[in-house]
Amino acid sequence: MIDVDRLLSDVEKPSRYIGNEHNIVIKTWSDIKLKVALAFPDLYEIGMSHLGFQIIYYLLNRREDVLCERVFVPGIDLERKLRDERIPLFTLETKRPINEFDWIAFSLAYELTYSGIITILDLANVPVFSKERAESHPLIVAGGPTVLNPEPIADFFDIIFIGEAEEALDEIVDIYIKWKEETKRSKEELFKALSKVEGVYIPSLYEVEYKNGKFFNLTPKYDWTPKVIKRRIVYDLDNTFFPTKPLVPLQQVVHDRGFVEIMRGCQRNCRFCFAGYIYRPKRYRSVEKIINYVREIIKNTGYEEISLLSLSSSDYPEIERLVNLLTEEFSKELVSFSLPSLRADNFSLSLAEKISKVRKSGLTFAIESGSERLRKVINKGLREEDFLKTLEIAFQKGWNNIKLYFMLGLPTETNDDIYQTIDLVYKILKLNKKVKLHLSFSVFIPKPHTPFQWERFEDKGIIEARKQVLFKHLNKKKNIVIDIHDYNMSFLEAVFSRGDRRLAKVIFDSWSKGSRLEGWKEYLNLTLWKEAFSENNIDPTTYTREIDINEKLPWDHIFVVSKNYLIKEREKAHKGLESGACEWKVLCDFCGVKHGE
Amino acid sequence: MENRVVYRLAFFKLNLLKYVGANDFLNFLGRALRRANIPVKYSEGYNPRPLISLGFPCPVGVESRREYIDLTLQEDMEEKELIKKLNDQIPNDIRFYEAYKIKKSSLIEDTYGIDYELYIFTHLKDPFLLEFKNLDSLEHRKILARRGNSIKEIKPFDYIKEISYQNLRDNIFLIKLKTIKLENTILRGEEFLELFYIKPVLIKQIREVILNV
Question: Which NCBIfam families match (chain B) (predicted)?
Answer without folding.
Answer: sam_1_link_chp (TIGR03936)
